[in-house]
Amino acid sequence: MHSHLLCGKNTVEVALPNSAVNIEMEPIPSLPDPDGAVAAALNAPIGCPPLAEIAKGRKNACIVISDITRPVPNEAILTPMLRILEEAGIAREEITILIATGMHRPNLGDELKSMIGGAIMDNYRVVNHYCRKNGSYREIARIDGAPIEINTNYLDADLKILTGLIEPHFYAGFSGSRKSILPGISSYETMKFMHSFRVIDQLKGVNCQLTDNIFHDYAMQVTELAGVDFIVNVVINRERKVAGVFAGHYAEAHRTGCALVAKHSLTWLEEPVDLVVTSAGGYPLDSTFYQVSKALTCAKDVLAPGGTIVVSCGCHEGLGSEEFCGIMCSMPTPEKFDGHFCKPENFVIDQWCAQNIYQALAHAGKVLVHSPGLKAEEIAAFGAQKIEDVQAAVDALLPTHPRVAVFPEGPYAVGKVRK
User: Which residues are catalytic?
Assistant: First the structure.
């Protein structure tokens, strides 16, 4: 069989045995009328009354939307929703659209306009979440001694609405719903807890899994404390078009959307494999090695201990942020990383993605990286090895690695081994 691995804006062709397991998203048709589907979902939601009924008598509203890093059709969701809220008696000036930036930068100007449209940007109050801006959040609880601090625009709203995208997620199982609050509108101190070495260390094979998932459990606990009246989440296909709209109760509607994602994104294997050949997802996901952690985690989940991972990634922007580069260039082994970052006082931004990479390195016997954007010494610094020819590397491995799986699109698809 021939597979084409996404790599930056190009592909890398590799020939594999016909017995190789091909792990990729199944085709899922896009909705013929996504705007109509949103309107219908608002009027006939899952697990709760229609939004128009819920909005009656509310003094003000806060609608949380995803930031620019998520391909959510915000304008299509917001347009009918805003109309319903105003018809229910909530004045336009009493509606706040809150961008769930997490720890990302704010979305402003033309970028914001591209996300929500000029009419909404010019006529409604739009606020970015700043996780380090004192006074913009307050504590609502403590979990294991850590402060749970949430944006006050949301906490003080009489009507609380979450919007977003449901897709596989290697921490939360699936994105969407409660993730709009944690980490979307949480403080830096709260995210230090949720992305701590201890929490991430417990997340083993939880992609596309909500049960026995401590990250999901914590996020649900925080969501219940913060409160939420209504959600609108969408599912998109590989063409990035809307394939499903799920509105209503934050848990019931979300679980229904997760079932659709799992059906089209999840492949079950009867046993682990010896060799995983994977893409990191292509441009723009593989712009830095920071994001390659997702592909390595997916590969690790189907790989037998001591097996080999071959990953193809563009990385035209290099390793990643300054903090991430500092970690990857100073921690040559998983043992070195664990020994340093298991101590909470050593926490730094981006350590969680590095932790996933070192987990994959500890699990695999070898990680081979094909990357036009990275130098051999950069890859060797954290214990992996650069290769120039994917086919040659695979051919050399096949005699000792008979069981093979390939992820042509990288982490957009998920494989799990039956227990």
Answer: 104, 169
